[in-house]
Amino acid sequence: MLSTNNFFRTTCGIILVVICSLQFNLWFGLVTRKNGVSLFINTRQKRKSISNTSTDRYTPPVLSKLCYKYGNLSAVNHCCRMYDYDINHKRNFLECAAKSPAWFKSEYGVKVSKLHWMFVGDSHIRNLFDVLIRRLKSPMLRYRKKTYTEGLWRKMNTLHLAKYQGIPVIVKHLEVPLLLTFTWSPLLKLLPNLTEEWLDDEKTPPTLVIMGSALHWTRETWDIHEEIGPEEATEVYKEHISSLSNSLMKLSRKMLIIFKLLDHLPASSNDITNIDKYNQIATEVLPEKVMVWNSAVPLSDLYVKECERKKRDTPETKLWRCTDEKHTGYIVIQRWQQTAQNISS
Fold first, then answer.
1. For 334, what's the count of Cα atoms within 13 Å in the CB-facing half-sphere?
2. Mean per-residue pLDDT, 70-85
3. For residue 46, what is the DSSP state?
4. What one-character DSSP code corresponds to residue 170?
5. How far from the centroid of its chain's Cα atoms is residue 184's Cα?
6. Do 81 and 33 form a contact (C-beta atoms < 8 A)?
7. What number of other Cβ atoms are within 10 A of residue 27's Cβ?
8. Helices 297-309 and 331-343: crossing angle, nearest 10°?
9. Bridge-based pairing state of the strands 115-121 and 178-184
10. Rounded distance, CA 189 to CA 17, Å?
11. What is the mean pLDDT of residues 13-37?
12. In whole angstroms, what is the distance from residue 304 CA to residue 308 CA?
């Protein structure tokens, strides 16, 4: 088992691979491998072949489960080359981030002096935010709660997301123009208000938004699920996600929007019996320009299977959380990162 320090240095590759691959490759084409030869492929030409639905929704290869081969709690991408951005790697992530603002200005017209990545949603999205700031693990990081302009900036060792009370968390780097924000909105009911704030604010609008919601909707609609049926329960979720279309379309004109589907969870989670239906609804109802992240779902199946074979729990690193029926362990993210290392050049 990896030590805590080694794990935090090497974890969260999935987020960095997704973000960096999208930001620097999505609109310029993707480097892919075919029969051992690197090829430059225009993403729009590959649209149909890697789409994960029968519609015209475009899912980038770095997000689509159709681009991965799964096994032994690992995934190998056969559509595109991914890079591991590590603090000790030759591709230093913070150096990469420092050069990014001009790219956003040219592609989206967003007039910002920082990269601002916003995470909005439930505890699954909070975990992505958690492992990202752990991965950066820099003494130059500071965080505050409340708002962008209010609250005391503190050192990261005092941030305990496990005790999170719902106040927005803002993390900044003192030297690199990088801003990371997590907003707790498990039902995504804050999104319309956030949209107006982001579009009106020229200083701190996000350049990338990662969101997700389904886990708490299963709880919100459990009475309907029990009394009427699962189809009626998911209709409530469908109605709400549909109501967000206007906000999401506005945002997609200014920034990248990614919607992460809910991981599969243990069968013993008796209040979550319809995950695939919730995921299907999100895929079908979300506006076309919103990118659906489904490639992590098969890894969650492998994790659940391993937990059924052997219960493990490593509270310090959160690698294994088999006693937690509502979340996967961080080992899922680490396995993805190892895959990224293997296929990098």
1. 20
2. 82
3. T
4. E
5. 14
6. yes
7. 14
8. 120
9. parallel
10. 29
11. 42
12. 6
Selection from 6-10, 100-104, 173-177 with the highest mean pLDDT: 173-177
Average pLDDT over residues 121-147: 85
Please give the DSSP secondary-structure letter assigned to residue 321: B
Report the distance separating Cα 243 and Cα 287, nearest Å: 11
Three-state SS at 153: coil
Tell whether the model's pLDDT for residue 94 goes beyond 90: no
Identity at 339, one-letter amino acid code: T
* Residue reference for tokens 């907003």: 183
Strand runs labelled E in the chain: 30-34, 37-41, 68-70, 75-77, 115-121, 141-145, 154-155, 169-173, 178-184, 208-212, 256-260, 291-293
Question: In this predicted model, which residue has the larger pLDDT, 242 or 57?
Answer: 242
Q: What region does 146 belong to: left with phi over 0, alpha with psi -120 to 50, or beta?
A: left
CA dihedral 200, 204, 210, 216 (to 10 degrees): -70
Do 43 and 30 form a contact (C-beta atoms < 8 A)? yes
Enumerate the H helices of 60-155 as residue ranges: 93-98, 101-108, 123-136
* Contact between 61 and 340 (Cβ < 8 Å): no
What digits encode the pLDDT tens for the residues 269-305?
A: 545 568 899 999 999 999 999 999 999 899 999 999 9
25-34, 61-70, 159-168, 243-252: segment of lowest average pLDDT: 25-34
How far apart CA 319 and CA 327 sit, in angstroms, is: 11
b/e map of 66-94 (b: 16 or more CB within 10 Å)?
A: ebbebeebbbebebbbbbbbbeebeeebe
For residues 108 and 99, give the distance between their C-alpha atoms in angstroms, rounded to a whole number. 16
Q: Quote the CA–CA distance of 294 and 291 in Å, as a whole number.
A: 9
Q: How far apart are CA 248 and CA 72, in angstroms?
A: 36
- The full DSSP string for 256-269 is EEEEEPPPP--TT-
DSSP state of 319: S
Please provide the DSSP assignment of 194-237 as one string.
Answer: HHHHHHH-SSS--SEEEEE--HHHHHHTHHHHHHT-HHHHHHHH
